């Protein structure tokens, strides 16, 4: 026996499989489909070149066969790669060609996708389900001793063969990693179509009334026919038919066709990438997110835009979503180590940004403005990104507020503030946000406070509170809507002139060495 046949592992020993091999070949199977239906499961075999596979197929078909009357295959039976295979309609032929892989490569380069790893996904025309079933029934009928008990599920799938053949070659072209079993966040989806799909499947509609109940009120239109024929319904219809019924409706093996499948759409998807960091806000005139009142933009920019525009550009993302651990008002600064934030980048084209590039990106953001600054900028996993919102109400925040008091005060008048620990507040929705938040009352805790005397009418109030405490309202009382307030504690009118967030006590994201 020829050397190349010794490595094959088929449903039965190679000698026994020579007859089905010849029949499949003559019926019009391409070398890959021939090997699939003979039971070959070894990915290495399918990674041979088209010429090598063609040689294996020819050798199989031209072996002298003891108990089969037919002679060796003559030259007119040679299936060239431009005759569409009856089982894959060319997906394992032209679909695996160098020319087509170059088309994929071009598309990905043009769109600028850069990823460490890629995955392949195939969408194939549904008549391939009908055709594969027809090939299997043909084999079971003709070679019952070899194929009894075999089913299409035991045949290596066309998609696996496609990925084995094309994955490693695309890997070299794209300069990205590829592993058959590992799903990548970057997916290349190939949509193969065939113009005869409907013609080849529509017989199922009348043959399987249980799967496709007829619409009595109006004649089934072409459009609705397309609608009901899908992967699930076709598979269900086929399994509802007996073998003999199916064989009376479809030629087994299936007929040859003139045209191959075409891949009209190469679509790339990349899962969202998450970038986290902390920001300081030094401006008292900058909103956190774009500020729009009655459809009109206020302020030229915002914290989120100053941070995200450059990040979006670096990752070539279609869009972004910004979120943070709480937020500050337009006139509030955020100092200290800043406020944790997260940017979700939707459909990024670049996902592989090393830490030194992230540092450069951070420098770029910071050198572009004096209103904000960013630190600890880093890519985080989706899982890690969820930590931003975990335990939000248990987090603590520290503030300093410049307070003006109505009556004259002495430094000693502020001492009592330090005695107050874990003061419980009941805060009704502040008047200033009542237009955008539901009317409610929330309980919050001020863990501790202290006063730093400035002059007889001013002092700085330092406080550490539970996240979500309305600080401004605590200071001025919000017309009694916050109880107690600094005003009730000091028995005088108190007003807040400036507020700074000193720290957001969240240990996330991790600190990056500058
Ligand atoms: Zn094929």
Number of helices: 20
Total count of strands: 15
| Unreliable spans | 67-76
The proportion of residues in beta strands is: 15-25%
The multimeric state of the shown protein is single chain
The overall number of domains is 3
The rounded distance between the terminal residues' Cα atoms is 68 Å
Mean pLDDT: 91
Pfam families: Pus10_C, Pus10_N_euk
Protein name: tRNA pseudouridine(55) synthase
Keywords: Isomerase, tRNA processing
EC number: 5.4.99.25
Short structural description:
With 514 residues, the protein is an alpha+beta fold.
Description:
It is a single chain. With 514 residues, the protein is α+β, with helices and mostly antiparallel strands. The protein folds into three domains: 3-269, no CATH class; 273-388, Alpha-Beta Plaits (2-Layer Sandwich), CATH 3.30.70; 393-505, Alpha-Beta Plaits. Helices cover 33% and strands 24% of the residues. It has 20 helices and 15 strands. The chain has helices at 3-6, 14-27, 31-38, 43-46, 50-61, 98-111, 127-142, 144-147, 158-174, 197-201, 203-207, 222-228, 231-240, 243-249, 303-315, 355-367, 382-385, 416-419, 471-476, 486-490, and strands spanning 119-123, 186-193, 262-270, 273-281, 291-293, 296-298, 319-324, 332-346, 372-380, 396-405, 421-428, 441-455, 458-466, 482-483, 494-505. The strands form three sheets. Strands 4, 7, 8, 9, 10, 11, 12, 13, 14 and 15 form a ten-stranded mixed beta sheet that branches. A hairpin with a 2-residue loop joins strand 5 and strand 6. Helix 6 packs across helix 9 (158-174) and helix 7 packs parallel to helix 13. The longest helix is centred in the first third of the chain and has 17 residues, at 158-174. The model is unreliable at 67-76 (pLDDT under 50). Residues 29-30, 32-33, 85, 87-88, 92 line the site of zinc ion. It is an enzyme of class 5 (isomerase). Residues 85-268 form the Pus10 N-terminal eukaryotes domain. One of its GO terms (molecular function) is tRNA pseudouridine(55) synthase activity. InterPro entries: PsdUridine_synth_cat_dom_sf, Pus10-like, Pus10-like_C, Pus10_N_euk. Belongs to the pseudouridine synthase Pus10 family.
């Amino acid at each position: 026996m020829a050397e190349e046949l010794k490595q094959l592992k088929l449903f039965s020993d190679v000698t026994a499989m020579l007859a089905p091999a010849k029949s499949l070949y003559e019926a019009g199977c391409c070398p890959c489909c021939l090997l699939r239906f003979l039971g070959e499961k070894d990915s290495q075999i399918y990674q041979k070149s088209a010429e090598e596979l063609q040689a294996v197929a020819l050798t199989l078909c031209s072996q002298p066969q003891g108990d089969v009357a037919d002679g060796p295959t003559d030259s007119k039976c040679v299936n060239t790669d431009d005759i569409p295979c009856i089982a894959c309609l060319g997906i394992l032929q032209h679909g695996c060609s160098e020319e087509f892989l170059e088309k994929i490569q071009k598309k990905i380069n043009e769109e600028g996708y850069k990823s460490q790893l890629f995955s392949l996904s195939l969408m194939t025309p549904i008549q391939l389900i009908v055709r594969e079933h027809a090939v299997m029934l043909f084999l079971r009928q003709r070679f019952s001793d070899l194929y009894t008990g075999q089913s299409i599920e035991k045949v290596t799938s066309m998609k696996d063969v496609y990925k084995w053949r094309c994955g490693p070659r695309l890997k070299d072209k794209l300069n990205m990693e590829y592993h058959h079993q590992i799903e990548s966040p970057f997916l290349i989806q190939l949509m193969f179509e065939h113009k005869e799909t409907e013609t080849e499947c529509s017989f199922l509609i009348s043959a399987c009334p249980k799967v496709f109940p007829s619409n009595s009120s109006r004649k089934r239109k072409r459009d609705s026919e397309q609608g009901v024929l899908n992967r699930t319904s076709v598979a269900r219809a086929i399994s509802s038919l007996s073998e003999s019924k199916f064989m009376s409706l479809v030629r087994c093996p299936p007929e040859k066709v003139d045209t191959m499948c075409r891949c009209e759409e190469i679509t790339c998807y990349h899962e969202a990438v998450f970038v986290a960091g902390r920001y300081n806000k030094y401006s008292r005139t900058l909103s956190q997110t774009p500020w729009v009142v009655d459809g009109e933009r206020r302020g030229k920019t915002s914290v989120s835009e100053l941070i995200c525009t450059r990040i979006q550009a670096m990752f070539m993302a279609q869009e972004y979503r910004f979120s943070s651990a709480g937020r500050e008002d337009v006139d509030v600064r955020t100092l200290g180590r800043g406020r944790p934030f997260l940017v979700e980048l939707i459909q990024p084209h670049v996902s592989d940004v090393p830490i030194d590039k992230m540092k450069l990106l951070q420098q770029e953001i910071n050198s572009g403005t004096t209103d904000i600054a960013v630190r600890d900028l880093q890519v985080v996993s989706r899982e890690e990104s969820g930590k931003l919102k975990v335990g939000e109400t248990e987090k603590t925040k520290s503030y300093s507020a410049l307070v003006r008091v109505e009556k004259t005060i002495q430094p000693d008048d502020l001492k009592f503030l330090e005695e107050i620990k874990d003061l419980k507040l009941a805060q009704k929705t502040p008047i200033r946000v009542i237009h955008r938040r539901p009317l409610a009352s929330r309980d919050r805790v001020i863990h501790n406070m202290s006063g730093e005397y400035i002059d007889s009418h001013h002092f700085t109030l330092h406080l550490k509170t539970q996240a979500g405490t309305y600080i401004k309202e605590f200071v001025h009382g919000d017309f009694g809507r916050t109880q107690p307030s600094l005003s009730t504690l000091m028995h005088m009118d108190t007003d807040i002139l400036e507020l700074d967030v000193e720290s957001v006590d969240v240990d996330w994201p991790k600190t990056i060495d500058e």
